[in-house]
Amino acid sequence: MLQKGSAPVASTDLSRAVDLLAGRRVVALTGAGLSTDSGIPDYRGPDSPPRSPMTYQEFVSGHAAQQRYWARSHVGWRTMGTAHPNAGHRAVAALERAGAVQAVITQNVDGLHEAAGSEHVVDLHGRISRVRCLHCDDVSGRALLDERLEALNPGFADDGFVELAPDGDAVVSDVSGFRLADCLVCGGGPLKPDVVFFGENVPRARVERCYELVAGAEALLVAGSSLTVQSGLRFVRRASQEGTPVVIVNRGATRGDPLATLKLDAGCSETLTALVDALT
Questions:
Q1: DSSP symbol at 120
Q2: For 77-97, what is the mean pLDDT?
Q3: Is 120 part of the annotated catalytic residue set?
Q4: Of 74, 89, 113, 125, which residue is the catalytic one?
Q5: pLDDT digits (tens, 9 = 90+) for 210-263
Q6: Could you tell me if 178 and 254 lie in one domain?
Q7: Count of the separate structural domains present in the chain
């Protein structure tokens, strides 16, 4: 399945990418554009409508914001929780198995790299399949929370197709009657998805691990990221500063284009699949 409006990668561009990546220790940095072929929309793709994601400051402001988030997320989980890896995820996993990619740094929270078979993955922004208590820091599974929310709000998520927004929440107009589930461990702490919200810092240890991976890489392959936010762009900047080749695969412009050794304006699924054939 190709992304809507995907441009095929030119054979000359693919040959240049192969020349830059072949025989080198490659680290992949992936973003939302890689998961659009799995039915998960992105924030900044060429066809994406304007989005206003909830910030960390808004989420922790109180019950009303958390009610709005969890109502939307409970509905969106019907799609997010059942999404499957696409050809792009499978290609990255194949490149790792072949030794052409050493590790993956992903800005996505969907867990689809691991589902596709990738083993060395850093979830830069966390994982939507986990839930963390803001009081006692206990981490639990999203599936359990989904069962609890369904019991508290029977039928709320059964109204048929809704528009899915990035990070797994859905467009829901009326959330006024939605009931929240609190932490089972501390008996009342508010629950938050174990992901990094806008306005929230990525844990320092996770950032340092990514810098270590980039420092040890001989090439950086960016796939499906506009690199608009600093959390991903900083690794492209570090690679560029170190003289490490940077290959970017993304539909549309990215903030890292001036730093790229090669930019391929093409869809991830077909381009990464072609790279598997060329590099393995």
A1: S
A2: 95
A3: no
A4: 125
A5: 999 999 999 999 999 999 999 999 999 999 999 999 999 999 999 999 999 999
A6: no
A7: 2
